[in-house]
Amino acid sequence: MTEHGPAVPGTQATYVFAVCRDVDPAAVRDLPGVDAAEPVRALPLGTLTAVVQSVPAADFTDEAWQSRLSDQRELERYARAHHEVVSAAAAGSPTVPLPLATLYHGDERARQALAEQADRFHSALRRTARHAEWGVKVYAPAEPSVDPVPVAPPPVARSGRTRPAAGAGLAYLERKRGMHRRRESRHDDALRTAEAVDAEVSRLATGFRRLRPHGAQQTGQRDVQVLNATYLVADHRAAELVQLTRTLQERTGTRIELSGPWVPYSFVGEV
Amino acid sequence: MAELDFRGAAQPVAGPPAASLADILERVLDKGIVIAGDIKIDLLDIELLTIRLRLFVASVDTAKKAGIDWWETDPALSSRAARDALREENNELRRRLEAQEAGEDEAPRAVDAPGADSAATQGK
Fold first, then answer.
1. What is the value of pTM for the model shown?
2. Predicted ipTM?
3. Size of interface A-B (CB pairs under 8 A)
4. What pLDDT was estimated at residue B57?
5. Is A54:A38 a contact under the CB 8 Å cutoff?
6. CA of A241: which chain B residue's CA is closest?
7. Chain A interface test: which of B27, B77, B96 (most A C-beta within 10 Å)
8. Which among B4, B58, B72 has CB closest to A70?
């Protein structure tokens, strides 16, 4: 990758949101995109169409991204703007979403670079046609904040053991060990449930990817996420998927969260 | 009941509108967000205005706030880390136990029952 210095003021760059088979420009025209000054529009690429927006190059330099990504609100604004355009395009046409911040010098350069990858886009479109991506998350139940098991019988009866204080110390140790064992076994149970859920949902899916579980502070709950996976599911099986996750939740008593349908972000191919 | 964010159902692939930022980020950044690898976000081999993952390394705190903290070792998620935590806690408890018994031992050491030492030191 070559990195150019700060762009000349006034220079426009072309931000590409997605490549579609055949997008209706009206579907994206009124969206703000990542820079409301210019409309989101369709850029024909021969057999395909890119959804693009002209943006001031100066706003998308390395340094600009550096500070943008350090600001969660800005990061969120860009991520959601990108997602919004991709979703709007995909609602009307098979779509290959491009990663956040895919930029070219200008329309010509974008057309040239994207046209070179037309085969890849076509195969991604074929692979994901009439499919959507669904996220499945499984949560282990939160651990009780206080050990619910009453003090275990202290092992004071050891022969020669005469000091009650020491016996209490050992009992404490034993109790702590017991808590850890229970916690580990609860965690193992949750992981087994996660594997079972993944196995069952995978059977219904044509593709799957495991994502890293989110931290508890993100989910806003004490429940620990033990599975964060995403699946490519044929549209006609979506109802089956909803039913399956519902059944699995009832059967395992584990909280299962389903999100979707998503544009098949995670399944448009290894680039 | 599975919690289903299904408001986009009318449009086949509109995407869940109320999706969490972490969900969106891990998708719009694609595999690019894999912090461990120095993968470029310019997956299409673009020149010019591209960003690299090192930006994210510089803004790990932001990513963490967004819930993208999975490069960290989480004892709750990694059994190895959980075992380490257990071992550490056990060691700490043993240290405290020893300190406690050492305190008691100061005066009555001479009259200790013969088996006491082995009981006190078990588990070391």
1. 0.67
2. 0.78
3. 257
4. 40
5. yes
6. B2
7. B27
8. B58
